[in-house]
């Protein structure tokens, strides 16, 4: 996974994440004044926009927005900014999958969003990471983060997102499953395999994202010594 | 449409809708149907608890003597606050939609809506509801018609639509001057209130009606029948 | 969601009942029929003007979903080297062998939820449509081959009497006629899904309605007029380009039809669940000694209904499975209470039972 933060200068936070042929840029603006119809009296309102690599928005992007929203909503400390609003905008630069799939774009987008939210300084309750998993139709083998040709061979594809944090003892703490979205043909044992494998991969991504953030913070606060 | 609708999944643009061949030999065999034709009497089924998230609703199944069906559902939303400038009376809007088939074109639908809006503007006590909107949605679930002649269709569904809206308004508890109902004869529909002493709407597809008073008289007979049915249900 | 309703909900739950007065793991009753909407319905009265080829009405509690399926025909673009017909099928299987989705087809659903407003589709309508489309595509329930048009030819003899010939019904020597025109058509299916009295999540309801409507679909036989089968006329020339209008349209037989072939063993039905914590403070203590239970307990609710439940439950599961536990889709959203593997297992066993129940009703 390659990441870079603060790539855009006109927004509050931004990040680019690319992984195995999929590249998404995410920008975060806010917390700021919402339009009256978006305003929530007790909580921070979210607007999520996904723009596809090719063409214009369609129902496909609406579904992606909905999935990303369900992952990001619980990790944001929304009670800290009532009557305020954050806009999170995703531009897919390289889809890395055909129009019939969205797993790679969603999982990469979620990782990008976390970095961009940290960059913007929007308070988070925990971190979240996302990955995608495919199960091949013939050998019933799990492929973590499949490439485009591998994706085509899969009987089922899964997006998996985990809410993670680190407790006082510096131990990684798995807080909840934020999203599992599985499509295709699979059975109960495969679903649990996905949960198991996905957890390992999400923890790996979590440590990776943490070190990226650590580097950034130490660079940003270099004057503080 | 020049701009493709991106908010709906419409399928390939070059696809053509199915067109069924019409040739005399293969038309639907009539024998099976004639049995229950004419023998059946007119019948109406009414229910008013189908749509739960509306303020009032009604569902009417109307079966005529030829066992042709008209299934109509009406839901009333409101009176609810109207945005914008002050209005001393309620504004009534009526939307007509076909749930399954799409027989009517947008022009016809608009005509139906305008006609019904005029009828119900006269019947609903709109002075009672200032600053409010009353939105009525009519869903035509099905109407079967053995005679595919275009003009007859609207005539067949209109009385049921009017009856259905009346029931939905009653269910919603919105004040109306009187139960409005309608009767149809040939190519005309006449809507009445006050036991047929007052006409609230006339729709006619016939351009040479010879005897208008005769027509109204015929419609009134059917109106009284329809109204009787509604009253019976409400008891 | 205001605090009052949340508290009310918690109190309800601590008394082991729900706002809709169902038990925690109790589903709403489901009624499914074809609604007599399709032209192929047993009691159809308007077969000659009806273009609906499959339908269903699903009623679950007060909510009901009406699905009507209509069709279209689209000409498939064939590559030039396919003309020699030899081994065409094998070629396709070779090139698409590794691409699982290339063989699958889907329908084009438009979901409309009645809400007493006019205007464009809402986000929920768009998302539900897209999910239905995508789930069906990935499920493999509907294959492209099932939508292929086996086109016939209509012959008109001197007396004006017409006969229709379909390639799979005819004798060997006549088969040439249909093979002489090397074009291919496919059916396209559109689903109009209308939801009334929405009172909870609708995806699984719409899915069940769509599947039962698809099971009732009859594809009409289609044919070309023999005289017109090879005719093309230029209608407009502009510079070097020319628009060629085909002089014929593919027509459908008003009488003959074939049932749509679905992969029966792939069929699955949907159900949804919610997981919610009961706040210990809101619990009405039954006995004094229970007061010291300070940890929030979470409960599993089947078939989310009412606004109170929908707005206070953030952890949701939506599963599509058959009775043997073969899944077609699983969506788990953990926005609220912690979702444990045991909970997921419980949901899976419930959804298998539910699927069996629904299957028996279609």
From TrEMBL, chain A:
Presence of keyword Nucleus: yes
InterPro entries, sorted: ExoRNase_PH_dom1, ExoRNase_PH_dom2_sf, PNPase/RNase_PH_dom_sf, Ribosomal_Su5_D2-typ_SF, RNase_PH
MF terms in GO: RNA binding
Nucleotidyltransferase as UniProt keyword: no
CDD domains from the UniProt entry: RNase_PH_RRP46
BP GO terms, sorted: exonucleolytic trimming to generate mature 3'-end of 5.8S rRNA from tricistronic rRNA transcript (SSU-rRNA, 5.8S rRNA, LSU-rRNA); nuclear mRNA surveillance; poly(A)-dependent snoRNA 3'-end processing; rRNA catabolic process; TRAMP-dependent tRNA surveillance pathway; U4 snRNA 3'-end processing
Record localization: Nucleus
Alphabetized UniProt keyword annotations: Exosome, Nucleus, rRNA processing
One of the record's GO cellular component terms: nuclear exosome (RNase complex)
One Pfam entry name: RNase_PH
Exoribonuclease phosphorolytic domain sequence ranges: 3-123
Source domain of life: Eukaryota
SUPFAM superfamilies reported in the protein's UniProt record: Ribonuclease PH domain 2-like, Ribosomal protein S5 domain 2-like
Family of the protein in this entry: Belongs to the RNase PH family.
Protein name listed in UniProt: WGS project CCBQ000000000 data, contig 00102
Annotated source species: Kluyveromyces dobzhanskii CBS 2104
From TrEMBL, chain B:
Any one Gene Ontology cellular component term annotated for this protein: nuclear exosome (RNase complex)
Top-level taxon: Eukaryota
GO molecular function: RNA binding
Region span, Disordered: 20-40
Basic and acidic residues bias spans: 30-40
Keywords: Cytoplasm, Exosome, Nucleus, RNA-binding, rRNA processing
Boundaries of every Exoribonuclease phosphorolytic domain copy: 44-175
KW rRNA processing (keyword) present: yes
InterPro entries assigned to the protein according to its UniProt record, in alphabetical order: ExoRNase_PH_dom1 (IPR001247), PNPase/RNase_PH_dom_sf (IPR027408), Ribosomal_Su5_D2-typ_SF (IPR020568), RNase_PH (IPR050080)
Keyword set includes Repeat: no
GO biological process, one term: rRNA catabolic process
Pfam family, one: RNase_PH
Localization annotation: Cytoplasm; Nucleus
Predominant localisation class: cytoplasm
Family of the protein in this entry: Belongs to the RNase PH family.
Name of this protein: WGS project CCBQ000000000 data, contig 00058
UniProtKB/TrEMBL annotation, chain C:
Source organism of the structure: Kluyveromyces dobzhanskii CBS 2104
Ranges in a coiled coil: none
GO cellular component, one term: nucleolus
Protein's cellular compartments: Cytoplasm; Nucleus, Nucleolus
One GO term of the biological process aspect: U4 snRNA 3'-end processing
InterPro entries named among the record's database cross-references: ExoRNase_PH_dom1, Exosome_comp_Rrp42_subfam, PNPase/RNase_PH_dom_sf, Ribosomal_Su5_D2-typ_SF
A Pfam entry, by short name: RNase_PH
Domain Exoribonuclease phosphorolytic per the UniProt entry, residue ranges: 26-220
GO molecular function: mRNA 3'-UTR AU-rich region binding
Keywords: Cytoplasm, Exosome, Nucleus, RNA-binding, rRNA processing
Organism classification: Eukaryota, Fungi, Dikarya, Ascomycota, Saccharomycotina
Gene3D superfamilies, per database record: GHMP Kinase, N-terminal domain
Family according to the record: Belongs to the RNase PH family.
Protein name (Swiss-Prot/TrEMBL): Ribosomal RNA-processing protein 43
